[in-house]
Design a protein that fits this description.
The chain has about 300 residues and is of the alpha/beta class. It has a single domain (about 5-300), classed as Ureohydrolase domain (Arginase, Chain A). The chain has helices at about 25-30, 35-40, 70-85, 100-115, 145-150, 180-185, 195-200, 205-215, 250-260, 280-295; strands spanning about 5-10, 45-50, 90-95, 120-125, 170-175, 190-195, 220-225, 265-270. Strands 2-1-3-8-7-4-5-6 form an 8-stranded parallel beta sheet, sandwiched between helices. Strand 4 (about 120-125), helix 5 and strand 5 form a beta-alpha-beta unit. Helix 3 (about 70-85) packs parallel to helix 4 (about 100-115) and helix 9 (about 250-260) packs parallel to helix 10. The protein is globular and about 55 Å long. The model has no long low-confidence stretch (mean pLDDT about 95).
């Protein structure tokens, strides 16, 4: 990847789940030095500030879906912002919970259709996020983005997806918490999925390399969505959906380094950071370091950090 224009878009989305705190995420990334880390790598950085949700209807008292209307407003705002930013550079969406990806991926897909190239999505997450509002038992919309962007029904009131992503163009890595309804839906889909047992047995490089080869063969655009809970909570505690047994720091950096080597990443989500749950900013700093790896920082360039 050559020098890029990295467009930072704050998305303080906190409507996708009930545990508050992700709205502080965008400023935590800024405080942890994301812009400076990217500038040190030779990239131009443009910070477009924080988005606000589009005007939306009032919440219905009997709606089982948490903050349904507000998430619709966020999805509309993020879809437009993502499509516009894709034309100008490489947008990095600073979350915010994973409900922001309903809009960021939809906007990236709309841009991909406009330029006549397929969109691929790499989902780095402990969860598959393939519920619909109808299948979700929790009513939390941060568990629905992949269902929405692939065009599954059940998203009443949400804007139509302008260019649904082909399930075969999606790869999930890091799975270790999938409920029965999602498992059944995933098994019936063409989504590529790799759980932590497979990673333990064969390593993380093999499935990622195969997916990146497919992106390259199709000359596709690649949206990467990095959830804090992809990482093991021992190294990344600042997330409300901790699941033990996640990726190590080294595995996560390998993924990012391979993404940079491929030269295929065209947009990036950094999601589910809850600074309220962090320990002296260590999770925010790790996420910044991973973003830097995806954009060219090499092993010998990595700073040594102390947290005491």
């Amino acid at each position: 990847m050559t020098q890029a224009t990295c467009i930072l878009i704050g998305a303080p989305v906190d409507s996708g789940k009930r545990r508050a705190g992700c709205l502080m995420g965008p400023d935590a990334y800024r405080t942890a030095g994301l812009a400076g880390a990217l500038e040190e790598l030779g990239h131009r950085v443009e910070d477009r500030g924080n988005l606000a949700p589009a005007p939306h209807g009032p919440e219905a008292e009997d709606d089982p879906i948490f903050q349904h209307q507000r998430t619709i407003g966020w999805t509309q705002a993020l879809t437009g912002a993502a499509e516009a930013a894709m034309a100008d550079g490489l947008p990095i969406f600073l979350g915010g919970d994973h409900a922001l990806s309903l809009g960021s991926v939809a906007g990236a897909a709309a841009h991909a259709r406009r330029v006549g190239r397929p969109l691929f999505v790499l989902w780095l997450d402990a969860h598959s996020d393939y519920h619909t509002p109808r299948s979700s038992t929790s009513g939390n919309l941060h568990g629905t983005p992949l269902a929405y962007v692939t065009g599954r029904p059940g998203f009443d009131g949400f804007p139509p997806v302008p260019a649904p992503v082909a399930p075969d163009n999606i790869c999930i890595i890091g799975l270790r918490s999938v409920d029965a309804a999602e498992r059944e839906a995933l098994q019936a889909s063409a989504i590529h999925r790799h759980d932590m047992r497979e990673i333990d047995e064969t390593g993380i490089a093999r499935p990622l390399a195969a997916f990146l080869d497919r992106v390259a063969a199709a000359d596709g655009l690649l949206h990467v969505s990095l959830d804090v809970d992809f990482l093991d909570p021992a190294v990344a505690p600042a997330v409300g959906t901790t699941v033990p047994g996640g990726a190590t720091v080294r595995e996560a950096h390998l993924v990012m380094e391979m993404l940079h080597d491929s030269g295929r990443m065209t947009s990036l989500d950094l999601v589910e950071l809850n600074p309220f749950l962090d320990e002296r900013g260590r999770t925010a700093q790790l996420m910044v370091d991973l973003a830097a790896s995806a954009l060219g920082r090499r092993v010998f360039d990595r700073p040594t950090r102390a947290y005491d």
